Amino acid sequence: MIHNKRAYLRRFGGVYEHSAWVAEKAFDMGPPAPKDLPEVMRQIVEDAGREAQLALLRAHPDLAGKLAKSGALTAESTSEQASAGLDQCSEAEFAEFTALNARYKARFGFPYILAVRGRTRAEILENFRSRVDNAPEVEFREALDQVHQIAALRLEALFGA
Q1: Which helix (H) or strand (E) holds 74?
Q2: How many domains are contained in the chain?
Q3: What is d(CA 49, CA 27) in angstroms, rounded to the nearest whole number?
Q4: What is the DSSP string of 16-32?
Q5: Residue 30 sits in a domain of what CATH number?
Q6: Each residue of 42-97: pLDDT tens digit?
Q7: pLDDT grade, residue 161 (50/70/90)?
Q8: 33 lies in which domain range?
Q9: Whether 148 is catalytic
Q10: Is the CB of residue 94 less than 8 Å from the CB of residue 128?
């Protein structure tokens, strides 16, 4: 258990993409035992309200987007996208991701989010195509659920390390 706030935030601040406020609130609550951290952090996000949740969703990068191509993603996002082969998209796949990203963001106001670890580019594209026409409230909930899944995988990696 880490009792120094700065060290705690260094370790857990990136669990929710560019949203260290989640880890900070978890620390201020106790901090929770490692086994409880995924659920505590999830509940912090769920209780944060729509505006904070929307900001959290908007903090995520586009999949296979310009930031990925330029190397400007967080280390966690770079690793996750590379694990799915998104750093090796063909020109046609990159063009489709770019078009889907633009369409999705115009429709929902936040980027498409999917826990990509363990998935192939083809599976990701199929999921993307199937979600782009969802109702806004359905997609908001799905995006939040995906963010929680990403956070759980990141915590698992941190505790496994």
Answers
A1: none
A2: 1
A3: 19
A4: STT-HHHHHHHHHT-PP
A5: 1.10.3330.10
A6: 999 999 999 999 999 999 887 765 545 545 546 676 666 666 677 778 889 889 98
A7: low
A8: 5-160
A9: no
A10: no
